[in-house]
Amino acid sequence: MKIKQNIHIIGGSLYGCLLAYFFSGKKKYEVYIIENSGNLINSLNPISLNNMKLNNGYHVFELPRSQELLNFMMKKIKIKFNYFNNKKKISINKYLINSNAKLIEWPDKIKEKVSIKKNYYDDKQNLNQYFKTDLVKLIKKNSERFTDKFEQCKGYFLPYFLPADIVHKSKNRGMILRDLIKRSKIKSSIAVPKKFLFASIQKPIQKILRKRGVKILFNTSVSFKNKKIEYSNKEKKIDLINKNTKKIFFCMSSAIMLKDIDHKYLKNIENTKRFFYNCLVKINSKEKKLDFSEILCLNNKLPWLNRISSPSNFLKSKEKCLQIEIISKEKLNFLKIKKDLLNEIKKILLLRHDPKFKESKITRVIFTPDKLWTKKGVIKCKKWILNYENKIVSKFDFFPVNMNQTWFYAKEDYKKYY
Predict the structure, then answer these.
(1) Coil, helix or strand for 24?
(2) What are phi and psi of 217, to 5 degrees?
(3) What's the Cα-to-Cα distance from 276 to each of 311, 332, 395, rounded to whole Å?
(4) pLDDT, tens digit, 9 for 90 and up, residues 346-386
């Protein structure tokens, strides 16, 4: 009997699970997922605020951008979805603006702070080519929630806070579609699991992978010390890597690898730490419909206010609520800031009644190292994997990857290496 080749997938992320699904379709492979925790796709783990289960931030499949991944989830994993209009908005201080609004449709108070010198954006332009001093200062003040260096996070603001008149020139698949949506060239909708929580995807994917013969090693750690990859469960080593191992796909943050390769270098990013908060705010049921999917925020009083969404829109609940995403360099005292937060929300959404603050939690800690640090980190990881003579495949990502990008990663790697 022909001995099967082994495919090792380090990390049960969505990227790792998709790779496992593709490779398990070939009988010549024995596929293993090595996962440090007891679950797959931990990025989809829910959070709880005021006894209400929520996604850890705004999670949707944006269509048509994520259509292929959505089709896979429906046809292969048998997940059911609800569909909604994609009504993106931006807020600049108290002014709420449709993301597909042209400059002529913007509020006069904001228009007077805009000065368009370029009718396109291709990642090379600076803020001064679109905005006057007041708005430039506002954007840079808000950018500190991500990083101390504006150029590093410019892409979080441009093109999102530009009028729809400005064409975004990009080679990125996702950004091309987003630009067409923003300029109303194509229609867009969003899909959310019928159970609302994206965590509802985790168990069905695990069940399908096991059915296809994938061996999932939960609670199994990976070490990259002494120029060797070692797997262990409860400190007991697991010997899996041998001459039959064809490829080892590293599907986690490269920080995990770098921790063992050069821990001292990794510690240098401690000063880039940011705290990601989720807050739950209840809205009076007599308020008019919350007619938006998400709102990206620029705010002078609350520069840490990042995004507003409304889970109750997706849950079709009579009880209205808002999920507020906050990113801050420092830990926040909500006893001091919640009054200002609620006042700003009331202004932005033109609410007649006072919203009620329910609960807030730090649900993630994120790091935003600069390009030079990241480049050196990637070089260190690339140099280390040479020990395995091209057996290891890695994207060398230090930052989170969106769900749609993981789909393309998995498809490309499978096509290249199967």
Answers:
(1) coil
(2) -100, 95
(3) 18, 11, 25
(4) 999 999 999 999 999 999 999 999 999 999 999 999 999 99
